[in-house]
User: Fold this.
Amino acid sequence: MVSARGLTKTFTRKKDVVEAVKDVDLDVADGELVAFLGPNGAGKSTTMRMMTSLLKPTAGTATVAGYDVVRNPAEVRARIGYIGQGNAGGYSYRVHDELMNQGRFYSVPADVARQRATDLLDALELPGMEKRTVLSLSGGQRRRLDVAMGLMNHPGLLFLDEPTTGLDPHARANLWEHIMRLRVENNMTMLLTTHYLDEADAMAERIVLIDHGTVIADATPTALKRDFADDVVTLGLLPGDDTAAVVVEKARSVVPDDVSRVEDHAEPDGTVRLVLATNHGPDLVPPVLRALEAVGVTVGSADVKQASLDDVFLNLTGRSLREEAAA
Ligand SMILES: Nc1ncnc2c1ncn2[C@@H]1O[C@H](COP(=O)(O)OP(=O)(O)OP(=O)(O)O)[C@@H](O)[C@H]1O
Assistant:
């Protein structure tokens, strides 16, 4: 559905040169849901704008829905939906008119467009809003209207640039529910950008991590967390009749070999905190608890912190995506 090779974009303004996207290769198969995840300014929108034919690449090629984005931009645009970062609807226009205009833009026959507008307003929980101006809608409703506008041509491929930024958690969840249902109903391939880690983790079947204009990792969320970050298991060990040193010695003797990092910390209250880094935290706990019991070590508490996409980004770049998103 999408194939890009060596996609590059350099912006030049007077003496300022910004290498926004550098040599990006990407393939997206029919039906996939792929998220571009990366900090502000990483090059996510620029990549998406090149793939949607809105921006001409400095170098490289991209084929979208079977057409080259530079040689056949009109064919590309006819086959995709694009929901950009800003609101698409003109604020003083009525909701229904904006949908019909969008239909006209894509040469959808008027009667078909009218039916689609009604169906989309229904599907996106905007019934009765036809005559309202875009300005009178709430932020969440406006974003849902953007989605409706992006779907008026029934695209097989939908590009969404930060669809939920600025919405409260309830509105975010609500919009996702609608998008996911429409995705199944219309059998859509989807490419989206986000800086919400939880969203990418929960929604995307594949994540393309982008930093400084280049792809630094490309895999399923599960594979990224398994390969580039560890779960951290923390056990509170009670000393009983043993000294802390003996507890540590016994505990370390039963730690499985595949644990990638082991730390022990003697706490002021006499307990020992044992920290195990592993790529299978939840599975590790039961056998380790049994093994500790077998060597006479009592476990007072257990905690598993599963690896997050932020840990992945941190391990790959030395920076936290969560902190950069908040900055
Ligand atoms: N028209 C432009 N002229 C000059 N520089 C630009 C232009 N558009 C984007 N850039 C620069 O290119 C880089 C990548 O920007 P881009 O918008 O693609 O990042 P992004 O990952 O989408 O960020 P965000 O999450 O903030 O939207 C940034 O340094 C940005 O300032």
